[in-house]
Amino acid sequence: MVPLQAFSPGSVRSFQGVLILADMLADRKPHVASVTLHWMGAILVLTALLGGLYVGYYAAGCCSAEGRLVFLIHAYAGLTVLAVAGARLIFRAAFSWPKPSGDAHGRIGTAVAGFVHFSLYAIMILVPLTGWILATAMPCCWGVPGLPDVRVLSFGIGNPTMAGLGAAYQVHVTLAWITIGLILLHVGAVLVHHLHLRNDTLRKMLPGRLRNRMKGSGRAPAPQQ
Predict the structure, then answer these.
(1) What is the 3-state secondary structure (H, E, C) of 117-131?
(2) pLDDT above 70 covers what percent of the chain?
(3) Measured between alpha carbons, how far is 88 from 125 in angstroms, rounded to an integer?
(4) Could you tell me the pTM of the whole model?
């Protein structure tokens, strides 16, 4: 590694300025890759949930051609969520997350936000994983082509018996309903930040053009008490 003394004072000051600017940008908005993965994950989660609700409650199975197609969309969307969740965790560890401005959350709000975010990451891993276990154990049209057998991770609930399949299905469905509840909490918190607290929490997580459009709309921040 080349010591800083080898560079001119002007170069050192410029380098320090770049680091300070990077910290300031990290405080203002997340990394663009994190924003992209966030919206990819959101679209995939909604696709998987809607497909699962259709197959599980409307079509009552996947043995028809239409039900089979929707089931496969549900399954592959869920498996892609697993990959996106892993990528999001990597970027979350590699790049600092913006700090909330002022005391926007408070201690209780910060704790609740942390719990919901941790739960969403856990759900984005557990729901696809339990679905994967279920798909490799289920017969007939519930199978997913190309999936390796991961029932070794199921701790017995994915055994190919009626009791094992029923347990795996119940775990998967219960986690899916918990996912819906967490999404509603997450969206509700975002709306509180945007409509009541009037900070830029929502704007930070929007893609570039939408973020700039909201910035140019002239929305005045809430007066500080």
Answers:
(1) HHHHHHHHHHHHHHH
(2) 65
(3) 11
(4) 0.71
Has residue 224 got a pLDDT over 60?
Answer: no
Which 8-state DSSP code applies to residue 32? H
Best CA proximity match to 98, nearest among 211, 216, 203, 213: 203
How far is residue 201's CA from residue 98's CA, in Å, rounded to a whole number? 9
Q: Which residues contact 143 (CB under 8 A, 6 or more apart)?
A: 135, 136
Taking alpha carbons only, the member of 40, 22, 132, 23 closest to residue 88 is 40
Average pLDDT along the chain: 75
Write the class of the CATH domain 30-215: mainly alpha
Give one word for 218, left, alpha or beta, with left for phi > 0 and alpha for psi -120 to 50: left
For residue range 70-107, what is the model confidence (pLDDT) as tens digits? Answer: 989 999 999 999 999 999 888 888 876 666 555 555 67
